[in-house]
């Protein structure tokens, strides 16, 4: 049974005590959260750890009790070079793959690492995505039931976002460089809905007035993203988002957005990925920054929500909480 399946009513986000995933004197920013197959109480979180020398390294922590307790974060790769924006997928009963941005001799590239336990990873090297020059960053991967791995990523220098895919467990990748978002797009993220074989992409763009806009785009053909994008929200903030395909059949998107001097978490729902509900605010903290949300479907219109929380400019930590996103429970957020 999933975490939320035993709950007859999901509580509003601010009414449930937050569980710290990390509590350290470091800057730790959430990258990805995963619930392993057939392990309803297990959680794995991949994060960026930024030390005071601004060195980025990927760390992993895990919980075997639904998030009540967490292991001490440990290095996922320990390569000694820049590692960030980790995206973790499971490809077999004892097989995991981690995609991440790394600094090579000639610039930024996306690399892949493999593991049997999502704790000790072996670096497999950079992906060949069809580019003659480096500059691919911020990967986000999903695995389809047939085994195909779909990867979206950004390019440096205000280039568009792109998608690639692998049908041989990550050994080789499509190199046609399919564009999925316009020039200047950032933080491309993707999910997939099994019911209608539909992909949902979210990304943000900047405006001349300094504000940002959050967009959604859908397709059922991975190499055709010609349908127009729909704006979900606009305002101040980087709109680092996560799209979700929920068990109730809806799509949902989580993101952070400025409210006064703080940054709060919001969500929106859609049945088709084009028509979006009014944004719903889920955090109401004072003097805090809430960013980089990620959700694991918990059923009953709820998600097991992870995000990065900071009460200062020095340290960031990751927290977890059960949150309701479904409009069915809307009165509880008012």
From TrEMBL:
Stored CDD domains: Sialidase_non-viral (cd15482)
Protein name stated in the entry: Exo-alpha-sialidase
SUPFAM superfamilies per UniProt: Sialidases (SSF50939)
UniProt-listed InterPro entries: Sialidase_sf (IPR036278)
């Amino acid at each position: 049974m999933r975490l939320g399946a035993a709950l007859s009513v999901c509580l509003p986000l601010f009414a449930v005590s937050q569980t710290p995933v990390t509590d350290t004197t470091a800057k730790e920013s959430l990258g990805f959260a995963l619930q392993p197959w057939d392990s309803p109480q297990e959680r794995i979180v991949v994060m960026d750890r930024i030390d005071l020398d601004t060195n980025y390294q990927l760390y992993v922590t895990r919980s075997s009790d639904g998030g009540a307790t967490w292991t001490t974060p440990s290095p996922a790769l320990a390569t000694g070079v820049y590692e960030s924006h980790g995206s973790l997928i499971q490809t077999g009963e004892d097989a995991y793959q981690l995609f991440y941005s790394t600094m090579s001799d000639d610039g930024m590239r996306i690399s892949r690492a493999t593991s049997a336990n999502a704790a000790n990873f072996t670096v497999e090297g950079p992906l060949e995505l069809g580019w003659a020059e480096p500059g691919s960053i911020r990967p986000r991967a999903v695995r389809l039931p047939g085994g195909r791995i779909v990867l979206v990523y950004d390019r440096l220098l205000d280039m568009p976002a792109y998608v690639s895919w692998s049908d041989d467990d990550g050994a080789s990748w499509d190199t046609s460089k399919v564009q999925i978002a316009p020039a200047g797009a950032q933080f491309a993220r993707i999910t997939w809905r099994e019911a209608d074989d539909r992909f949902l992409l979210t990304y943000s763009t900047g405006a001349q007035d300094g504000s940002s806009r959050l967009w959604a785009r859908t397709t059922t053909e991975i190499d055709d993203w010609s349908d127009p994008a729909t704006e979900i929200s606009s305002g101040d903030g980087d709109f680092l988002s996560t799209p979700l395909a929920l068990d109730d059949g809806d799509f949902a998107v989580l993101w952070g957005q400025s409210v006064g001097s703080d940054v709060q978490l919001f969500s929106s729902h859609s049945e088709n990925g084009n028509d979006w509900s009014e944004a719903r605010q889920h955090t109401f903290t004072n003097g805090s920054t809430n960013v980089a949300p990620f959700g694991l479907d918990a059923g009953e219109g709820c998600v097991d929500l992870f995000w990065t929380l900071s009460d200062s400019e020095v340290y960031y930590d990751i927290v977890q909480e059960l949150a309701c996103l479904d409009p069915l429970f809307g009165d509880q957020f008012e």
